[in-house]
From TrEMBL:
This is Alpha-xylosidase. Pfam families: Gal_mutarotas_2, Glyco_hydro_31_2nd, Glyco_hydro_31_3rd. InterPro entries: Alpha-glycosidase_related, Gal_mutarotase_sf_dom, GH, Glyco_hydro_31_C, Glyco_hydro_31_N_dom, Glyco_hydro_31_TIM, Glyco_hydro_b. Residues 56-213 form the Glycoside hydrolase family 31 N-terminal domain. Signal peptide: none annotated. Belongs to the glycosyl hydrolase 31 family.
Amino acid sequence: MKFTDGLWLVRDGININGAVQNYVVEKTSEGLTAITQTTPITGRAATLNSTLLTVKFHSPLPGVVGVKIIHNDGVIDRGPAFELTKGTGDHVQIEETDSETVLISGGLRVVIRKGEQWAVDFYRGDERITGSGYKSMAYITDQDGNTFMREELDIGVGEFVYGLGERFTAFVKNGQVVDIWNKDGGTSSEQAYKNIPFYVTSKGYGVFVNQPELVSYEIGSEKVKKAQFSVAGESLEYFVIEGPTIKEVISKYTSLTGKPALPPAWTFGLWLTTSFTTDYDEATVNSFVEGMAERDLPLHVFHFDCFWMREYQWTDFQWDSRVFPDPVGMLKRLKEKGLKICVWINSYIGQRSPLFEEGKKNGYLIKKANGDVYQTDLWQAGMGLVDFTNPAACEWYAGYLRDLVDMGVDSFKTDFGERIPTDVVYFDGSDPQKMHNYYTQLYNKVVFDVLEEKLGKNEAAVFARSATAGGQQFPVHWGGDCYADYESMAESLRGGLSLGLSGFGFWSHDIGGFENTAPAHVFKRWLAFGLLSSHSRLHGSTSYRVPWAYDDEAVDVTRFFTKLKCSLMPYLYDVAGQAHEEGWASMRAMVMEFPEDPTCEVLDRQYMLGDSLLVAPIFQENGEVKYYLPAGRWTHLLNGETVQGGSWRKETHDFFSLPLFVRQNSLLATGSVDTRPDYDFADGVKFGLYSLEDGAATTATVRDIKGAPELTVKAERKGNTVTVAAEGSGKAFTLAVKDLGTIASVEGADQADETTVKVNAGSKSVSFTITLK
């Protein structure tokens, strides 16, 4: 939201009371409280009829400092509020000199300047990373009596801003106006389903605004050297999070707001859906499933979209008996084929649903101020919304989900959650402005908790569209409604990379696009991208997404990349474990892995899948692709070609290839199974040791099906000698050297040829030495 008219003027009707002078700084049990004046105090009379801002500094975690700016402190906080980790503050140090008061938290120092001009500066060591200057913190009123709180933090020369949720606009957010307000706007506009009030910059720090309501950002778009954010009301709280790397910033941010759960291994396989408005019954579903099997296409999850329920009755959780007369038997038959089952739901209850009367009678639906149930015809005729602030409503909704899980359902696609009105009343009295974005958190939590309760820890996964800060705890999320063209494929990737830089570990998208039907060449290129994403789903709107509906080659491409992904599961599930433990996205923007390479700061058409694999999807019908390899040796995973990085490359690929490179100093684990994602990853695992530099060491971990580390292998090179040590399962494995020359001899292993060592590993601790020619 803009308040000024260019650099010199203020917009008509706007009054800005900005912090200009420090009155006093006091130590408190939580940190520091500063009182700042919005007009200079020249004498006692100047203290009358004046505005003060109270600024509270505290630190819940080392390297994280909270700043709360308050004008009037008598406002009732009706909630909701983000659930944040609350530390003891024992790590905080306070220092004071004649010119400044300093709060120290881990590697972050906050310096509050004394004297006649107000300023707050954030330092990493001796480096100033950002700050709030003269008049940046402000209490603002407009001519209609509305009040706002504003902060402006400095953006340095050459500094780039990323994140703010799943945004489909330009990857670098500098110059953009971003409103944190969930909307159902597809993937082709500035609107977003997943708005997260957190950004991270190329300087290696992040800023999280702890406000669930509308946060309006001007990222260098009102004042070009400022990241401005504002909210309506009388207070504003934000946290500055120091890295010093982007990965460490995100790790600390997710320690504050919640780590992603670990999805079960089966979710990483290929999902196939009925699509949205297509006609289907059990025979249709079986034709899809059998068609996949007949063509040797591994399939792991089948999803029933909206019309598994009767039209006009969404959501009633009842199978449409006209087309599914025996749902229990059908699900049993599908599961006997090795499939997991997902069904579509949302939190909207159409008036023709039997649940509507139950919800109305028991007070489970959101109401208007006069006590009527809030209703709309948008989406479902006469629909109401479940009030998840009511514990009884949550249990009512959860009860129907439990019945479906007992029937054989393994996951729920939690669609919608963005169209939440603000002229309503909630059971617990929550502020409807704050509930607009926060509603999705309560919705997804109820569903996720049911799955975890019924299926167990690390067995729960939703397929969610909407989210807010903290929503990363309930994976998986997908990108929403995109068109079936290369432009939407690219915008989807931008959204996924931005979401990954907002603390979300797992992300998917509709392979081939949702709206319309893609040409075969788009579908085949999207297959490679989709099956080299954390989660992979074939889904559309008005047409089926079975590969043979496109052409015969699409079938072969589907088979090739599905089997490739299954074979990569030992590596991918360790990447998933890192997402769960550290908060790092499985699909990482290049700047996240290569923060010192300035070329990587703006790349948005390629990504790292974990820390070892570089993926550059192809967005051209003719197969041309231009991509960048950072410095170092890179080996193409599919053809074994090794090239030197540090430059751009332009190539042409067929549909069975794309730039897919293994980073130097990688120990890449691949599995012995290529037909499913959930198997014993350590049984027969193969490690590729890629371009290990002299003096370098690398480690790979293979996890079990529950995500616990089962086998750890470390390789270290000194000259022509590579020392390998393995701890864990005691199962046999194979290690192949890549781009290291040939093997001259091996000591301590069972078998070796010129490039490969086979280890029986009868004990749980194995070490051997490779001498290279």
